[in-house]
Amino acid sequence: MGTLKVDTVTNVAGSGAPDATAVTVGNVALSSLPQMEYVASANAPTSPSVGSLWYSTTSDVFYMYDGTSWNTITFTPPPPAFFGSRGIFTPGQQSAFANVLDYVTIASAGNATDFGDLTSSGTGTSAVSNGTRGCITLGQDTSFGFRNGIDYITISSPGNGTDFGDLTSVRGFTIGVHGTTRGLFGGGYESGYSQSNIIDYITIANAGNATDFGDLTVSRYRPAAQQDSTRGLFAGGGGQNVIDYVTIDTAANATDFGDLTSGTAGLPSGGDITHAVFAFNYGSPSSNLCFVTIQTTGNAASFGNLNASNSLGAGNCGDNTYGLFALGNAPSESNIISRLTISTQGSATDFGDLTAARKDLGGLAGG
Length: 367
Known about the structure:
Layout: E1 24-25, E2 28-29, E3 38-41, E4 53-56, E5 61-65, E6 70-73, E7 86-89, E8 98-105, E9 113-122, E10 127-129, E11 133-137, E12 149-154, E13 162-166, E14 175-178, E15 182-186, E16 198-203, E17 211-215, E18 224-227, E19 231-237, E20 240-247, E21 255-264, E22 269-271, E23 275-279, E24 286-293, E25 301-310, E26 322-326, E27 334-341, E28 349-358, E29 363-366
Parallel strand pairs: 3-4
Antiparallel strand pairs: 1-2, 4-5, 5-6, 7-8, 7-29, 8-9, 10-11, 11-12, 12-13, 14-15, 15-16, 16-17, 18-19, 19-20, 20-21, 22-23, 23-24, 24-25, 26-27, 27-28
């Protein structure tokens, strides 16, 4: 393709500029189109047209003129991919240990559908996601021994799990937080049911063994967890009320964030890009919820209630609007899924049922 270069354009007589008012594009006269402009300057343009754009080099902000005043243009980035449309719940303890994976469409209340199976049955599983791939720890086996294995699935394609690699130590009842690249597994039970403070990390897109990330401030099994795009929270676990935080892409020991309103163990959590909501209780099922703002530090405040009591359930499964909570024990093994609108402080509603009642399961989202 050639290039046409023109230094001067004149009218037919060669005596001046052409008459652009008669120019049409697709039978539309250019003169009829709005005269919009874009200006980058320290001060607002004078005599702007409706729809004109101005970038303020002083405040680093975009504005649009509405005929009367300049209005700020805000850009809202999409949520991370791990706030996806599909939610997946991992195996747990039914009447016996299971390997079943369930999935739901988070925005559409209804019963879960069978997704596939992990490579072996177990309970005390946990999960992380980058939006495309989910990685799931195998937890405790049917002989009550702990395992270090991790399986992976492709969230958009129902099917069975495939071996991913191993944790740095043999343990179950961990919990996972994740960013767009890394997944972290924290806490858990080790041999002899001693509680662990270990945090491991994996690169979710690349199958392989986990690497040591750092330590929690307190050893505990099955804390709750939630994250935004940069920070991960580990809350409660083992009857503790402590909340820790980490920067997901920076390997280091966890830092104290604040406290839950009560000690917890094995309870679900949900959230959006701003807030983390935790169920809390220890010793008997409860419907109580509390929340924190992820990018601050401080103690949790009361949020509302689930629509049924729970313990040993699963969360970390949401689309940035809704958070789904599998109730676990309510007070016996339950198939109930609750849905919470994270931005609205209040109580959850019934979403539907798992394919089988179970406790000590995990959750993730993506797709």
